[in-house]
Amino acid sequence: MPTKSELKKLAHPTKNKIRKGDRVLIIAGKDKGNQGVVIAVSPKEHKVMVVDDSNPDQPVALNAVIRHRKPRMQNEKGSRVTIPAPIDISNVKVIDAKGNPTRIGKRVEDGKLVRYSKKSGETFVDGPDLDTKEKK
What does the alpha-carbon distance between residue 122 and residue 112 come to, in Å, rounded to a whole number? Predict the structure, then answer.
């Protein structure tokens, strides 16, 4: 039987305003102050995966954790594997076109629902626009 808090979450789901491809600043945790690009968003868990794209040939995962791997075969060695870990959405802020960390709002412009920077008021053009009602 679901708990009262789980029922509230099902009745009023929160809408994530961060999308794949957004530039974000990490504001809490061990990688606080680092900037990166969102490569995956998990809306149900409220988590994002962030990669530092300063070197496009080899992107480095931010908030990476190390897992120790045991050898499976007799002549194989054990190793330490670096795995990217998700970050909670509340621990990142989107960076707007001016390079400032900001919160995101939504408003209707020209019949389309668009995201905008609450700090500067500019509309985000990097993500796809959402139609308020799909016309068929």
Answer: 15
